[in-house]
Amino acid sequence: MLHARVALNPASVVAPVSRRTFGSFVEHMGRCVYTGIYEPGHPLADEDGFRTDVLALARELGVTMVRYPGGNFVSGYRWEDGIGPADQRPRRRDLAWRSIETNQVGIDEFARWAEKADVEIMYAVNLGTRGVQEALDVHEYVNHPEGTHLSEQRRANGAEKPYGIKIWCLGNELDGPWQTGHKTPEEYGLLAAATARALRSAEPDLELVACGSSSSTMPTFGSWESTVLEHAYEVVDYVSCHAYYEEHDGDLGSFLASAVDMDHFVNSIVATADAVGARLKSKKKINLSFDEWNVWYLSRFQNAPLPKEWEVAPRVIEDQYNVADAVVVGSLLISLLRHSDRVTAACQAQLVNVIAPIMTEPGGPAWRQTIFHPFARTAALAKGDVLRLEIQSPVYETARYGEAPVIDAVATHDPATGDVVVFAVNRDQEQQVEFAIDLCAFGADLTVAETWTLTDDDVRACNTRDEPERVTLRALDTVSVADGVATLALPRVSWSAVRLTRA
Ligand code: AHR
Questions:
Q1: Residue 1: which pLDDT band, with cuts at 50, 70 and 90?
Q2: For the Alpha-L-arabinofuranosidase C-terminal domain, which residue ranges apply (predicted)?
Q3: How far is the CA of 282 from the centre of ligand 1 (A)?
Q4: What is the pTM (predicted TM-score) of this model?
Q5: Is 277 found in the same domain as 371?
Q6: pLDDT higher than threshold 90 for residue 139
Q7: Residue 181 and residue 127 in contact, taking contact as beta carbons nearer than 8 Å
């Protein structure tokens, strides 16, 4: 049996858990909106056409914030198409996903959905085909209280109170040649800075996110952020990060170590942003908004053409997730939490149907994919402070990321309740690992309150419409506490969480 060890110390704190770590993403793409969150005529639709089964699952998932309305979609979007009488809204081509956008859902409908789901909206403006004026216009519509043309239009459309959206993305992935309106870092940095200054003139305390790199494999990774921040440092609060992981050619070892890349991504962009701050002699720190992350079998999508016909809500990238994918999602959340001092917002992409934890059938049921479970448990259990850990773990060699620890983990401590929660993954493909967690620094007897694990003899097992509970969480019954040390026997290829409480 393999062994790993860590000592926890309540005085060694990274940062408080940011609730915005548990964000998600609703893009007008495929079936995320139409037949995802919104399906009038579905037996479970409410008076606004929202699927109540999906709303219930979104709440269960513990999502706190949702990025909207895109994604690549936003770079060609006219927000005003989605307001006013639904039967007068234009049908438009969406070039990003080669589909027809009916505009039956716009910002007013989405704000109603967000209220029902009890989530904060992170709103992305179009800086692909549009600019400062349109960003100001949508801001006036959603956030200006009353007495102006656009705020009165919102009130006439039924929303008397402004939506008070605080966090805004200044465009999407404009470093990518695939993006409508793709820009050089100079062009984008100047536009982002100008848009940020204008939005701040309207509402000074907005939190603004500049586009960072679409992936750590972009040729401009790092230099893009550096140039953009040279222009926008003092007027933005965040730079965004996007990363998608998949198992390439059956290389499960590398795939399970995806969080090594996420750690590298975060450390590189923190260093880049801090270097710009130092050059500018600024006292301010730029945080990271990891506002697109997930497992996505992107290479399959890149080899498959987009739909030939222009359809409404086509089935696009409806990846079906297995046990290994869920373990990776759990480990990516461990990485995000570990960086809570600088990653203070994050969005799993996406929420429903499109590379999503929640799946639906039109007119039919909704169910939880495997990746739903580690997200939901982490969002429910991570409270208080994130602790700094030095884990002693065996390592293994991966083709993509070099040496990776077999065990990765993060812990939170809630000073209000005394609860300690440890989230851990075992990446070994053959063996269980005994993980010893020294709790002596807490000075109180801690006892096991709840345990969860996601593992399966078949790491390729999935949940489907016909077998929606095939993969689910079970209790980890191999946990014991003695002499201030908790010992967990972590199954091979598993994600686990253990909550300890005062005896
Ligand atoms: O989430 C799917 C797509 O991935 C988004 O539209 C885009 O921003 C990213 O490339």
A1: confident
A2: 291-494
A3: 32
A4: 0.97
A5: yes
A6: yes
A7: yes
